[in-house]
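Raw record, unedited: histidine kinase
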Amino acid sequence: MNLFNIQEKNKNNMANLEKSKILVVDDKPENLDVLIDYLDKFGLTIFVARNGEEAIQLATKIMPDIILLDVIMPGIDGFQTCHHLKENENTREIPVIFMTALSDKKVKGFKVGGVDYVTKPLQHEEVLARIRAHITIRFQQKKLEKQNEDLLQLNQEKNDFLGMVSHDLKNPLNNILGIADLLNSSIQDKERKLLRLIEANSKRMLELITELLDINRIESGKRDLSLQKIELTALLFESVYRHRMPAEKKQIQLHFEQTDKNCYLYADRTAITQIFDNLISNAVKYSPFDKHINIRLFQSEKVVRCEIQDEGQGITKQDQQKIFAKFARLSARPTDGENSTGLGLSIVKKLVESMDGHVWAESEGKNKGSLFIVEFPR
């Protein structure tokens, strides 16, 4: 750090100090006068309370940046006063520095919420140094809290904008697909090829928009889950059946294995269906021609477990670190030109975790196949 930066830092610290309000609590005026005169020289605004009850009332009113609190006072002592301050939501975060001549009371001060202590007789330079240190910490905490609030607000605005734009794009795309379907039966082969290109790209955009809307609803807490007792075997079988045609197109065989006839779980039916569909679709997309995909369902007293294992391109160690991230760029690619939005696995993870489940992927490496596992507690 160069001399200019040091000077700027010291200047900022002094500026923070001059804006600060200090509440000094002591029942003996002779202990306060010299200290107050000393602190006043540095531009601090000093408030005085003579006992614990007065300190609690005054702190709530003025909201000081630091409280210097004597331990031994009539009525409620410093420890009780600090306890009351920490129980109050409005004064809980105000740093309390104890002033005490009793060395054995230091630990108790920390236990009731104090952040520091100075020993009596007071060394004024030490008191100022500790005040400055804790004001700086407090200032940085407030700054970080404000930055965090701003980031949360920006993220919410981004989600709102994304939801609005995606929703507004979805209807025109549906119209394009509807018109393309009507025209398809009344045009020549050359135009039909162009129309199919329009239709394929429109479907690709619609899939991306649908998943953007979906993940936006999940992240913003707008997707409500309806937990009910559902039978997973039938749901998983239906999902396997829905993917039979794209699998057959690539000569991929889907095998569904189950250990028990019925497998029940309290979960959201729509979310579970979407999880199964995304994982099986992903396995089909990334599997080469003429391979096998095994889908297994197990249950025990504590968990329900679904496994989807393919013979595809596998997952590199680097990709395993980011495979469930949004828009992750992975080394593997769909094997027959299928569309991939980069959001499917991220949606799976968020849906699984929203129902207290866990999902992960295992692979021995590139071209060694992949195993996706989903577990839910029972």
